[in-house]
Design brief:
The complex is a heterodimer. Chain A is an alpha/beta fold. Helices cover 34% and strands 26% of the residues of chain A. The longest helix of chain A is centred in the last third of the chain and has 16 residues. The chains are: A alpha/beta, B mainly alpha.
Chain lengths: 241, 284
């Protein structure tokens, strides 16, 4: 449903994305993992139209959406949970959700009621301004803001950054739930241990290209990739799952 | 005492006009970061268009509507076809608006000539009322009430509607606003047009008393900027506070020490900037 084909993006003279190829299949979670500064956030920005793409294509459900205006891309039901949350500080929690809302006729669509039942804390904080929320609350709001648009594709850029372990677990459960309800997800994460747990396919990014892709479990067993590209310390006798 | 009350009421009339004009200036700055030198031109064009249409139709209301609609259209075109090409280049945008201010000034001179004029009073508002010793023109009171109503309406739109929330989102983080599906470009054009219409409205409302004349655009501009700088650029509340400060100070200054009128105008601005560089209600 999302095909990223040989994508090249620059910041000025700096060649950040150097031919990225990624596919997200309908109803799955694709993870892009890699160290800080390899171009993960630039990839998200290029898909949603924040940063112009110099070459290559972004194809969404058969349509070329490369370099469309970001509000046009959003109206095609691609939502972003951005790095750093970027909650609108002077808007209340309710307003942050209201401006992003795109109603959908489908059963189980994300309405305000559904949002508040899934995120009871946001209901309690409904009239508070965005800049009065804690970091965890802001991350929940960022995810909720993306969900009220009823996305077909959800982009999540470092959703666990700076969160307490309990909140990270909540984000993990949310990702599984959203996927089970039929939304496809592209998850960009530096936290590879988290990403491999919630994804169906994992892409490893380094220096602006995809250097490896595989089943997430296979990736997690590949010590060479882990030490070389993910900065995960070499073998410990620690069992996962 | 009578003198004090009369001057205060006059000051509030100036404040009301300034608020109408400065609110548009501050909104455009808040959303687009455009320092609009042509804002005084919108005020001038409002008065001139209203003058022509009122003369033809014998209706001040028709003149006011035509002035606001026409100037809104001009403002929308200026933003859509010129300023937007220079997005994120504040200095270039400011120079562009400076150019437009000069073009509009000369165009007005070409079209309407150099003769000053005044607009007629709205029916029934030409008189004055007396309360004890204080005699105050009805029309000035009317302008104060209208400006207050406009202020309440702007506040309500900004704080209580979805459109207002989208506007504030676009001010907070324009890129992310686009990412949540808001057409920030269109919103900017509409805000700029609405600001131009408010300036034109100010020209019409001031018309019966201040009239229209060549140079009225650049006479007004420093006042509007002082208001916006005192209040904080981008803040509606600031425009209100700034208008009242400038309206009163300018009025009393000109009445008491006319030879220092520019000093009394700019001194409050300097004091506010020294204490709070972002203005009373501005954000860093």
């Amino acid at each position: 449903m999302l095909n990223i084909i040989d994508l090249h993006t620059y910041y000025g003279d700096s060649h950040v994305l150097q031919g990225v190829n990624i596919q997200v299949e309908q109803g799955t979670v694709a993870a892009v993992v890699g160290r800080n500064g390899v171009g993960k956030t630039t990839l998200c920005r290029s898909i949603v139209g924040f940063t112009p793409v110099r070459a290559g294509r972004v194809v969404f459900n058969g349509d070329d959406i490369t370099n469309l205006a970001s509000h046009t891309i959003a109206s095609r039901r691609i939502s972003l949970v951005p790095q750093g949350r970027r909650i609108f500080a002077s808007l209340t929690v309710q307003e942050n959700l209201a401006i992003a809302s795109q109603p959908s006729p489908s059963a189980g669509a994300w309405t305000m009621e559904k949002i508040f039942s899934v995120f009871p804390r946001l209901a309690e904080r409904g009239r508070h301004r965005g800049d009065e929320l804690s970091g965890g609350e802001q991350q929940m709001l960022a995810i909720a803001r993306a969900l009220v648009a009823n996305p077909i594709l959800l982009l999540m850029d470092e959703p666990t950054e700076g969160l307490a372990p309990a909140v990270v677990a909540t984000v993990g459960r949310l990702i599984r739930r959203v996927k089970d309800e039929g939304t496809s997800i592209l998850l960009v994460e530096q936290n590879a241990a988290f990403a491999v747990q919630v994804s169906d396919i994992a892409y490893v990014m380094s220096k602006g290209t995809i250097v490896h892709s595989s089943d997430p479990r296979a990736l997690w067993r590949n010590e060479e990739i882990k030490t070389q590209f993910l900065g995960v310390p070499p073998p410990r006798t620690l069992r996962r799952d | 005492m009578t003198y004090l009350i009369t001057q205060t009421l006059n000051g509030l009339f100036s404040a009301a006009l300034l608020f109408l004009i400065a609110s548009g200036l501050t909104l455009a700055f808040g959303v687009m970061r455009i320092v609009n030198i042509a804002h005084g031109s919108f005020y001038m064009l409002g008065a001139y268009v209203a003058y022509t249409v009122t003369a033809r139709t014998q209706s001040l209301l028709a003149g006011a509507v035509a002035a606001m609609a026409g100037v809104a259209l001009v403002g929308f075109a200026v933003e859509r076809f010129f300023l937007r090409r220079l997005a994120a280049q504040p200095l270039a945008q400011m120079m562009m608006t400076m150019g437009f201010a000069l073009v509009f000034r000369d165009a007005a001179l070409m079209i309407w000539g150099g003769d000053p004029f005044t607009l007629p009073y709205p029916p029934g508002l030409a008189g004055s009322f007396a309360a004890g010793d204080v005699v105050f023109p009805l029309y000035r009171l009317f302008v104060v009430l209208v400006a207050a109503a406009v202020g309440v309406a702007l506040w309500a739109v900004n704080e209580k509607t979805l459109l207002g929330a989208k506007l504030r989102a676009a001010v907070d983080d324009p890129e992310m606003a686009g990412g949540t599906g808001i057409n920030v470009g269109l919103l900017s054009g509409l805000v700029f047009a609405a600001g131009a219409a408010l300036a034109a409205f100010g020209g019409v409302m001031g018309g019966p008393i201040l009239g229209g004349y060549p140079g009225m655009d650049f006479d007004l501009l420093p006042l509007a900027f002082v208001v916006v700088i005192i209040g904080g650029m981008g803040s509606l509340k600031g425009a209100l506070a700034g208008s009242i400060v400038v309206g009163l100070v300018d009025n009393f200054g000109k009445a008491l020490v006319p030879e220092l009128s520019y000093f009394t105008l700019f001194a409050p601005m300097v004091i506010v900037l020294a204490i709070k560089p972002t203005g009373l209600y501005g954000r860093a």
